[in-house]
Every structure is written in C-alpha cells, then in structure tokens.
Amino acid sequence: xxxxxTSKENGKKGGRPKGSKTKNTIEKEAILKVFREKVMRSAxxxxxxxxxxxxxxSFLYKIPKVPVKDSKGKTTGYKNGKPxxxxxxxxxxxxxxxxxxxxDMDDYKDPNATYYxxxxxxxxxxxxxxxxxxxFGKSSNSLxxxxxxxxxxxxxxxxxxxxxxxxxx
Length: 169
Prior knowledge:
The chain has helices at about 5-15, 25-40, 45-55, 90-95, 125-135, and strands spanning about 55-65, 65-70, 75-80, 85, 115-120. By secondary structure, the chain is α+β, with helices and mostly antiparallel strands.
C-alpha cells in the first residue's frame, strides 16, 4: 500500500487524534530530556571550560632527564625526555612560587636537571561572544548610520558623487 493510500485509509478510520504525538516524536522527546539532564549535571564543568577558552589558557610543561643505559644496563648519563604536561596543582604552585630549582638542559650528568616551560593559548573570541550573548543578550550586528546631508557639504570630509554618466564630480 502506498503512502497516499495509507493516509487515505487512516483518514477514514479517524487517523491519529489531533494534538497526539507520533511514536518517533515521543522517542525524540525522551532522548532530548535525558540529554538535557546530562548537560545540566555538567553545567558547571561546561561553563568553566568555556570560560577558560574565553580568557585564554596557560600550560606548564617539564622536560625531565631520563637515564641512558649501556648494553650492560649501567647508567652512563642522562638525556632529555619528552615534554610532560604538569597537572598536579602542588607542582604548578611550587613552580610559580619559585620553589623548584630548574636544571641545565645541556647537563647530561645531572639526573635532576629538569627544565620547565609555560605555553599559552590565546583567548577565543567565539567563546567570549557566546558568554556575553548568554549573559546580556545577542548584540545587534548592524550599524545604522545616516550620512544624508541633503546636498550640504560636511566640513573635513571629501565625498565623491557619481552621476548617471559615471563621471566623478
């Protein structure tokens, strides 16, 4: 049976009562409700994440020394390891307070010669706009300026007017 025939047949039977929802609509609403509940439970985390993007972010890394072993397993020196992102709050605070002594990256005999560095991400204008729009409402994107002078000259400005023959005056 075609879709048109099915609709016609359902119309004879009265069809779906006015104002009732289809099975698909009910399923979509249930999924949306669960999704919204999950988002609401994470609202604080999501807000902080967007706030960090809006204000920019800084990251502290360290390059630790790793031992270099010979064929017998004996440590013969130290080389620079891979940079590691610092996530421990105490280590970040100690670094910022100057409590961590940095070593010389080129000193291959000092196992404690760890090097620290900070990188930064610029702020994200879309996040700034989004947060301001949600707080104060969306700002107007158009700027209406009336430059009509009714033929009068405006001091300090040179305007060029094109006539119908594309000649400039």
